[in-house]
Amino acid sequence: MNKMRFALLLFIVMPILEMWLLITVGGHIGALNTIFLVMLTALLGIGLLKRQGFATLWRGQEKLQQGQVPAQEMIEGIVLAVSGALLLTPGFVTDVIGFLGLLPITRILAVKAMLSKFTLVNASAANFSQSFQSETDNAGDTIDGEAWESKESLKKPK
């Protein structure tokens, strides 16, 4: 219930804060300059997002080729996607949060903090499968899966 109150407060307070800040900045530098500034931050953010996204993708592919699970790169990808969405949202507060997600230093710190809340339960380098179990979640939910080969691949000797 506490998280729900925080989310509700966030969805009420954030737009009001953004509107107030946009109106205040617009009063000082003018409406057109404010719109230009919002557009400029969005364009800069898209450029940074593209660059950081490709770098993260390459690092993840390198880990896969080495037979490692790219857990950090997957979470970095999520942080980058959220940061990109925040940068496309008009407003200065969301832009600051979005840029923090794009900066490698702050993004890596955030990802390490997120990864510290999870424990690697099962990792098999042969089929790159992994499952995470939250340290605080003891519900014991299990996700089961199966894999099989086609009849043609079973007939051919390996």
Q: Could you tell me the mean pLDDT?
A: 80
Largest sheet: 2 strands, antiparallel
Strand line-up across the major sheet: 1-2
Q: How many whole angstroms does the radius of gyration measure?
A: 22 Å
Task: Report what the structure shows.
The protein has 158 residues and is mainly alpha-helical. Helices cover 69% and strands 8% of the residues. It is built from 6 helices and 2 strands, in the order αααααββα. α1 (2-29) crosses α2 and α2 runs antiparallel to α3. The chain is extended. The relative contact order is 0.10.
SSE topology:
Blueprint: H1 2-29, H2 31-65, H3 71-88, H4 92-102, H5 104-115, E1 118-124, E2 129-134, H6 151-155
Antiparallel strand pairs: 1-2
Helix pairs in contact: 1-2, 2-3, 2-4, 3-4, 3-5
